[in-house]
User: Fold this.
Amino acid sequence: MNWNQAKLDKVAALHDLAHASGYARYDSLYALAEFCRHAPATRILELGVYRGCSAVFMARACGASIVGIDDFTQAPMTVAQKNLEAFGLADRVQLIKGDTRVANQLTAGPFDLVFFDACHTNEGVLAEFKAVRPLLAPRALLVVDDSLHVHGAIGAMATPNGGLRNYSVHFGLCAIVYDRALS
Assistant:
């Protein structure tokens, strides 16, 4: 790869956005991008958008369209929109203001990948899972942020008839394979 100044500027801009969004380490963002790059996702649902940082990383990693839901109380939706526009991704990411725990009432599926990054409690993540389950493609990848804090929800999601095939944890992200045939 030929690293010209324009590419270096883009990398610097990504890191600036990550830093402004509160990421002290970028490992989880790059792991998320890798999940997106290798999952056969055409539609991604992001629960918890904040400033749009993870949406930028996911959209740059693959050609999928993204629907992002957030209550936008921590940062206005215009901040996320501006960041998406700065990276030329606004046309691929639809932002919706609302409660992620009722995502099934705010958008329609199917989604091949869901990124859980809004509710950082066991109860919240489990409520989000129940809401998005009807929106999932027959096989989907679920990625949960802050997995060390919500391991109870992940365990509850993996109960019989949950439809979860297996999961692994990378840099605080838990990747779970959902298979409707198992639910």
